[in-house]
Amino acid sequence: MSGIGACTLESVSQPLESARLRIAAIHFLNPAPLMWDFEHPPQQSVLAARYSLKWMMPSACAERLALPIGDPNAADVGLIPIAALATTPGLAILPGCAIASKRKVRSIILATRANQSLADIRTVAADTSSRASLAYTKILFKLWGNQDAAFLPHRPDLDAMLTAADAALLIGDPALFALEDASARQPDSAEPAAPGILTAVQEQLGLKLDPIKIPTQVLVIDSIERPSAN
Protein backbone atom coordinates (compact mmCIF):
# COMPACT_ATOMS: atom_id res chain seq x y z
CA MET A 1 0.00 0.00 0.00
CA SER A 2 1.41 3.40 -0.97
CA GLY A 3 -1.35 5.86 -0.09
CA ILE A 4 -4.26 6.02 2.33
CA GLY A 5 -7.32 8.22 2.76
CA ALA A 6 -7.15 10.48 5.81
CA CYS A 7 -9.01 13.42 7.31
CA THR A 8 -8.37 15.85 10.13
CA LEU A 9 -10.09 15.10 13.43
CA GLU A 10 -11.48 18.64 13.46
CA SER A 11 -13.21 18.12 10.11
CA VAL A 12 -14.97 14.99 11.42
CA SER A 13 -17.10 17.15 13.72
CA GLN A 14 -17.46 20.03 11.24
CA PRO A 15 -21.10 20.32 10.01
CA LEU A 16 -21.40 19.79 6.27
CA GLU A 17 -23.87 22.68 6.02
CA SER A 18 -21.26 25.22 7.18
CA ALA A 19 -18.90 24.82 4.20
CA ARG A 20 -17.76 22.40 1.55
CA LEU A 21 -15.16 19.92 2.75
CA ARG A 22 -11.78 20.62 1.13
CA ILE A 23 -10.22 17.58 -0.56
CA ALA A 24 -6.52 17.41 -1.42
CA ALA A 25 -6.57 15.18 -4.52
CA ILE A 26 -3.74 13.50 -6.45
CA HIS A 27 -3.66 13.91 -10.23
CA PHE A 28 -1.97 10.54 -10.88
CA LEU A 29 -3.33 7.56 -12.79
CA ASN A 30 -3.43 5.12 -9.87
CA PRO A 31 -5.96 7.07 -7.71
CA ALA A 32 -8.14 7.89 -10.77
CA PRO A 33 -10.84 5.31 -9.87
CA LEU A 34 -11.27 6.97 -6.46
CA MET A 35 -11.77 10.38 -8.07
CA TRP A 36 -13.88 9.35 -11.08
CA ASP A 37 -17.27 10.49 -9.73
CA PHE A 38 -15.85 13.91 -8.77
CA GLU A 39 -15.05 14.65 -12.43
CA HIS A 40 -17.80 12.83 -14.34
CA PRO A 41 -21.61 12.86 -14.38
CA PRO A 42 -24.02 11.96 -12.95
CA GLN A 43 -22.39 12.48 -9.50
CA GLN A 44 -20.09 15.38 -10.47
CA SER A 45 -22.57 18.20 -9.80
CA VAL A 46 -23.85 16.57 -6.59
CA LEU A 47 -20.36 16.14 -5.16
CA ALA A 48 -19.30 19.65 -6.25
CA ALA A 49 -21.97 21.08 -3.95
CA ARG A 50 -20.46 19.28 -0.94
CA TYR A 51 -16.73 19.15 -1.69
CA SER A 52 -14.03 21.51 -2.95
CA LEU A 53 -11.30 19.73 -4.93
CA LYS A 54 -7.66 20.83 -5.20
CA TRP A 55 -5.13 18.82 -7.25
CA MET A 56 -1.54 18.35 -6.02
CA MET A 57 1.31 15.88 -5.36
CA PRO A 58 0.94 13.26 -2.56
CA SER A 59 3.51 15.00 -0.34
CA ALA A 60 1.62 18.28 -0.75
CA CYS A 61 -1.60 16.54 0.35
CA ALA A 62 0.05 15.68 3.66
CA GLU A 63 1.25 19.27 4.06
CA ARG A 64 -2.28 20.63 3.48
CA LEU A 65 -3.76 18.29 6.08
CA ALA A 66 -1.11 19.38 8.59
CA LEU A 67 -2.18 23.04 8.36
CA PRO A 68 -4.58 24.51 10.96
CA ILE A 69 -8.17 24.00 9.85
CA GLY A 70 -8.68 27.77 9.68
CA ASP A 71 -5.85 28.24 7.17
CA PRO A 72 -7.22 29.04 3.67
CA ASN A 73 -4.76 26.53 2.16
CA ALA A 74 -5.66 23.71 4.56
CA ALA A 75 -7.44 20.51 3.50
CA ASP A 76 -9.99 18.47 5.44
CA VAL A 77 -9.61 15.21 3.48
CA GLY A 78 -6.74 13.85 1.42
CA LEU A 79 -5.00 10.80 0.00
CA ILE A 80 -1.62 10.91 1.71
CA PRO A 81 1.55 8.78 1.90
CA ILE A 82 1.39 6.29 4.77
CA ALA A 83 4.61 7.71 6.19
CA ALA A 84 2.83 11.02 6.80
CA LEU A 85 0.58 9.42 9.44
CA ALA A 86 3.58 9.05 11.75
CA THR A 87 4.58 12.70 11.44
CA THR A 88 1.20 14.46 11.25
CA PRO A 89 -0.80 14.40 14.50
CA GLY A 90 -4.55 14.82 14.54
CA LEU A 91 -5.38 12.66 11.51
CA ALA A 92 -8.01 9.92 11.20
CA ILE A 93 -7.93 7.12 8.62
CA LEU A 94 -10.88 6.87 6.24
CA PRO A 95 -11.80 3.16 5.92
CA GLY A 96 -11.98 1.62 2.45
CA CYS A 97 -10.01 4.39 0.74
CA ALA A 98 -6.44 3.54 -0.32
CA ILE A 99 -4.02 2.91 -3.17
CA ALA A 100 -2.86 -0.68 -2.88
CA SER A 101 -1.79 -3.61 -5.04
CA LYS A 102 -2.07 -7.39 -4.68
CA ARG A 103 0.65 -7.90 -7.27
CA LYS A 104 3.69 -6.12 -8.67
CA VAL A 105 3.60 -2.32 -8.29
CA ARG A 106 4.48 -0.41 -11.48
CA SER A 107 4.09 3.16 -10.24
CA ILE A 108 7.21 3.17 -8.00
CA ILE A 109 10.57 2.32 -9.58
CA LEU A 110 14.25 2.59 -8.73
CA ALA A 111 16.29 2.94 -11.92
CA THR A 112 20.07 2.56 -12.06
CA ARG A 113 22.72 2.99 -14.71
CA ALA A 114 23.53 -0.09 -16.78
CA ASN A 115 25.88 -2.67 -15.20
CA GLN A 116 25.89 -0.90 -11.82
CA SER A 117 25.28 -2.98 -8.70
CA LEU A 118 23.08 -1.74 -5.87
CA ALA A 119 26.04 -1.82 -3.48
CA ASP A 120 27.92 0.70 -5.64
CA ILE A 121 25.17 3.33 -5.63
CA ARG A 122 26.23 6.40 -3.68
CA THR A 123 23.71 9.02 -4.87
CA VAL A 124 19.99 8.74 -5.66
CA ALA A 125 18.03 11.46 -7.47
CA ALA A 126 14.72 11.27 -5.61
CA ASP A 127 11.31 12.30 -6.82
CA THR A 128 9.90 13.78 -3.61
CA SER A 129 6.24 13.46 -4.67
CA SER A 130 5.67 10.73 -2.07
CA ARG A 131 7.17 10.65 1.43
CA ALA A 132 6.31 6.95 1.90
CA SER A 133 8.16 5.81 -1.24
CA LEU A 134 11.22 7.82 -0.24
CA ALA A 135 11.13 6.35 3.27
CA TYR A 136 10.82 2.78 1.93
CA THR A 137 13.76 3.30 -0.42
CA LYS A 138 16.00 4.59 2.38
CA ILE A 139 15.14 1.51 4.45
CA LEU A 140 16.02 -0.78 1.52
CA PHE A 141 19.38 0.94 1.06
CA LYS A 142 20.19 0.30 4.72
CA LEU A 143 19.30 -3.37 4.26
CA TRP A 144 21.52 -3.50 1.16
CA GLY A 145 24.46 -2.25 3.21
CA ASN A 146 24.92 1.19 1.65
CA GLN A 147 23.16 3.33 4.22
CA ASP A 148 25.48 6.24 3.37
CA ALA A 149 23.85 6.78 -0.04
CA ALA A 150 22.79 10.40 -0.45
CA PHE A 151 19.26 11.20 -1.62
CA LEU A 152 19.10 14.33 -3.78
CA PRO A 153 15.70 15.98 -4.41
CA HIS A 154 15.06 16.15 -8.16
CA ARG A 155 12.21 16.81 -10.57
CA PRO A 156 10.82 13.56 -12.10
CA ASP A 157 12.88 13.34 -15.31
CA LEU A 158 14.66 9.99 -15.66
CA ASP A 159 17.40 11.09 -18.08
CA ALA A 160 18.27 14.18 -16.05
CA MET A 161 18.15 12.18 -12.81
CA LEU A 162 20.59 9.52 -14.03
CA THR A 163 22.88 12.28 -15.27
CA ALA A 164 22.94 13.88 -11.83
CA ALA A 165 23.11 10.70 -9.72
CA ASP A 166 23.86 6.97 -9.76
CA ALA A 167 20.18 6.01 -9.46
CA ALA A 168 16.73 7.54 -9.76
CA LEU A 169 13.57 7.09 -7.70
CA LEU A 170 10.39 7.74 -9.73
CA ILE A 171 6.83 7.76 -8.42
CA GLY A 172 3.37 7.83 -10.00
CA ASP A 173 2.83 8.67 -13.67
CA PRO A 174 6.54 9.44 -14.36
CA ALA A 175 7.36 5.89 -13.21
CA LEU A 176 4.73 4.40 -15.52
CA PHE A 177 6.02 6.46 -18.46
CA ALA A 178 9.58 5.33 -17.71
CA LEU A 179 8.51 1.69 -17.80
CA GLU A 180 6.78 2.20 -21.14
CA ASP A 181 10.01 3.72 -22.45
CA ALA A 182 12.16 0.93 -21.01
CA SER A 183 12.38 -1.01 -24.29
CA ALA A 184 13.98 1.99 -25.99
CA ARG A 185 16.69 2.05 -23.30
CA GLN A 186 17.72 -1.59 -23.85
CA PRO A 187 20.86 -2.29 -25.92
CA ASP A 188 20.01 -3.16 -29.53
CA SER A 189 21.57 -6.61 -29.16
CA ALA A 190 19.51 -7.46 -26.11
CA GLU A 191 16.05 -6.24 -26.98
CA PRO A 192 13.58 -8.09 -24.74
CA ALA A 193 10.99 -10.30 -26.37
CA ALA A 194 7.37 -9.27 -26.07
CA PRO A 195 5.35 -11.38 -23.59
CA GLY A 196 2.86 -13.91 -24.89
CA ILE A 197 -0.85 -13.18 -24.79
CA LEU A 198 -1.45 -15.45 -21.76
CA THR A 199 1.34 -13.73 -19.80
CA ALA A 200 0.17 -10.24 -20.81
CA VAL A 201 -3.44 -10.90 -19.80
CA GLN A 202 -2.36 -12.29 -16.41
CA GLU A 203 0.09 -9.46 -15.65
CA GLN A 204 -2.04 -6.56 -16.90
CA LEU A 205 -5.56 -7.73 -16.01
CA GLY A 206 -4.92 -10.26 -13.27
CA LEU A 207 -6.70 -12.98 -15.27
CA LYS A 208 -5.27 -16.46 -15.71
CA LEU A 209 -6.27 -18.31 -18.88
CA ASP A 210 -6.07 -22.10 -18.71
CA PRO A 211 -6.56 -24.16 -21.91
CA ILE A 212 -9.25 -26.85 -21.49
CA LYS A 213 -11.03 -29.37 -23.73
CA ILE A 214 -14.84 -29.45 -23.93
CA PRO A 215 -17.23 -31.31 -26.28
CA THR A 216 -18.59 -29.20 -29.13
CA GLN A 217 -21.02 -29.75 -31.99
CA VAL A 218 -19.40 -30.08 -35.40
CA LEU A 219 -21.11 -29.86 -38.81
CA VAL A 220 -19.37 -31.94 -41.48
CA ILE A 221 -20.10 -31.26 -45.18
CA ASP A 222 -19.26 -34.29 -47.37
CA SER A 223 -19.93 -32.71 -50.75
CA ILE A 224 -21.58 -29.78 -52.51
CA GLU A 225 -23.47 -29.97 -55.86
CA ARG A 226 -24.86 -27.20 -58.01
CA PRO A 227 -28.70 -27.40 -58.16
CA SER A 228 -30.24 -28.51 -61.48
CA ALA A 229 -32.41 -26.24 -63.64
CA ASN A 230 -35.55 -28.14 -62.55
Describe the 3D structure:
The protein has 230 residues and is an alpha/beta fold. It has two domains: 3-99, D-Maltodextrin-Binding Protein, domain 2; 108-185, Periplasmic binding protein-like II (D-Maltodextrin-Binding Protein, domain 2). The chain is built from ten helices and nine strands. It has helices spanning 9-12, 32-39, 44-48, 58-66, 83-87, 131-143, 158-164, 173-180, 182-185, 197-205, and strands at 3-8, 21-26, 51-56, 77-81, 91-99, 108-112, 123-126, 150-153, 167-171. The strands form two sheets. It has a five-stranded mixed β-sheet, with helices on both faces. The chain is flat and about 95 Å long. It starts with a strand and ends in a 25-residue tail after the last helix. The mean pLDDT is 79.
Keywords for this structure?
230 residues, alpha/beta, D-Maltodextrin-Binding Protein, domain 2, 2 domains, 4-stranded mixed beta sheet, 10 helices, flat
Give the count of structural domains. 2
The Cα radius of gyration reads: 25 Å
> Which CATH architecture of the largest domain would you pick?
3-Layer(aba) Sandwich
Number of helices: 10
Q: Which of globular, elongated, flat, extended, rod-shaped describes the shape?
A: flat
Q: What share of residues is helical?
A: 25-40%
Strand content: 15-25%
From the helix content, strand content and strand pairing, which structural class follows? alpha/beta
* DSSP strand tally: 9
Average of per-residue pLDDT values: 79
CATH class of the largest domain: Alpha Beta
Measured between the Cα atoms of the first and last residue, the distance is 77 Å
Largest sheet: 5 strands, mixed
Which consecutive residue ranges, at least 5 long each, have pLDDT under 50? none
Q: What name is given to the CATH topology of the largest domain?
A: D-Maltodextrin-Binding Protein, domain 2
Q: Strands across the major sheet, in which order?
A: 3-2-4-1-5
